[in-house]
Amino acid sequence: MKLAISSDNHFDVNRIDLDSIIPLQAEYLVQKNIDYYFITGDLFNNFEESVNYVERLQQEVGSTTKVYFIAGNHDMLNGVTYQELERTNLHPQYLHHRTLRIPEKHLSIIGNNGWYDYSFPDQLSKKTAPEINHWKQSFWVDQKIDSPLNDQERMKIVLKQVTADFQTARENHDKIVFLTHFVPQQNFIFDQLDHPRWQIVNALLGSKRLGELIEEYPVQYTAFGHLHIRNLPQTIANTTYIHQPLGYGVRRAFEWQQPDFLTEWQRTLKVLVI
């Protein structure tokens, strides 16, 4: 069985023509015999457009490949409320707080959008939670996201959801592939602590508590996105972390290694054979 994972495609920011790119992506997935294609967030700056994309891609690949996605912070900016994001029946291809179980492989593929709680160490700036939140509401893109809870409360719900889903998988004696958007491990956080701005940004990237939770369960792989940098697969405890986001290919922030979207998508697509 082959699983393919991609993140941070940012079709709108990258000004990609879906009519042209979807058939080419579908052709590649089918050609590579991909059974499941998972997207770990940030397709568009609008949830409705993200849903439209995965529906179109699923239609294009037919029954050969099953397509699923979770939401990144950019998908949450428009077209969806917090309450809607938390609905497990929101859309059949939306994998937040859901488990895709493959019994014959003793495998549970678990999705959760994730969030952040300011828990990554801030060694120099020593900003308080209110100070970090004030900066976020003034400067950070996430200020537009509908959130009736504060960030710590929202992350507690994430941890509760993930714990329940992991526990069910363990009771089934399954290995776990975990898909999330935000950063779950300190190892991947920017090491630019001498820059005051990055010290605050680090607080908004994810949660070390999620990484601690992952280490308690039989998680074989964890795939995430959000940071527009790329890392080789890295094993921490018993889990291999996959972080190869596509990112921006625009003049103000050209993060690709190739000049065109399709080639860059193919290069950053991670394929797992299970």
Automatic annotation (TrEMBL):
- This protein's source sits in the domain of life called Bacteria
Q: What positions belong to coiled-coil segments?
A: none
Question: What residue stretches are annotated with the Calcineurin-like phosphoesterase domain?
Answer: 1-229
Q: Which organism is it from?
A: Lapidilactobacillus gannanensis
Please state what the protein is called: Metallophosphoesterase
SUPFAM superfamilies referenced in this protein's UniProt entry, alphabetically: Metallo-dependent phosphatases
Give a single Pfam family match.
Answer: Metallophos
